[in-house]
Amino acid sequence: MYGDNIVSDEEFLLLYDTFNTKNPEFPYGNYERFDLDSMNSAECKAEFRVEKQDPPRLVAALQLPPVLRCEQRSICDDIEGLCMLLKRVAYPCRLSDMIPRFGRPVSVVSLITNDVIDYVYDVHGHLITQWNQDLLNHGALQRYADAISGQGAPLDNCFGFVDGTVRPISRPDERQRIVYNGHKRVHALKFQSLSLPNGLIGNLYGPVGEFFFVKKVLVIVFSYVNFLSNFCSHL
Q: Before 207, cis peptide (omega within 30)?
């Protein structure tokens, strides 16, 4: 249009400024695609928090499909998708920080990471949101109680510890007060969990927002009503 003199210089500049992307451009094409074999053990441990031989084992344990396809048709293999997720959650980082390792645009890194998270949650989320008989059977609960008591705890029937976490979120457009955390001074969602002495999460309740002056009581009550209902149904 500009070359055919359909629009003037001023109109062209206005259109260019309106439709030009405001996102920073990252030269992802300057980097090679991800190759686990090219990394040494120290790099894997530093970036993914696992040993170099662990990603294939995790792929098998998590039952990831060999090929992951995003909604906009980007694809990657199971190892790359898992390593993207591991790097994303190993330490707080921006998506752009992952470009040198994976050689992909920010949008694709985001889509793949979210797809892997969704898959893992859909397939395995029940292990922490519902009753996990492997972790919470009668024999296991007694072993937890014995381990805690053996470390000098005054109780001999304590098998886990209540733990909670506040996860900040972007400020919502509506009902901001529901999720505003006055203590942390951020908008956030809360999770309540039962931590076992072996380091695993036995049960997870959430997410929930803030409930003003009764928020802590409600979170604890809802969490343990959910936990005890599951416990009683497996007696």
A: yes
96: three-class secondary structure by DSSP? helix
Mean pLDDT per segment of 10 residues, for the chain of length 235 residues?
66 72 74 92 94 95 94 92 94 89 92 95 89 87 93 90 86 86 86 88 81 50 58 56
What does the angle CA 159 – CA 190 – CA 227 come to, to the nearest 5 degrees?
35
210 φ/ψ sector (left φ>0, alpha ψ -120 to 50, else beta):
beta
Cα–Cα distance for residue pair 208/100, rounded to 1 Å: 36
Q: In 3D, which of 92, 98, 93 has the Cα closest to residue 80?
A: 98
Query: For the CA atoms of the chain, what is the radius of gyration?
Result: 24
Q: What is the DSSP string of 110-175?
A: HHHHHHHHHHHHHHHTHHHHS--HHHHSHHHHHHHHHHHHHTT-S-SS---EEEEEEEE-PPPSS-
Q: Report H helices in 20-53.
A: 41-48
> Model-level pTM greater than 0.85?
no
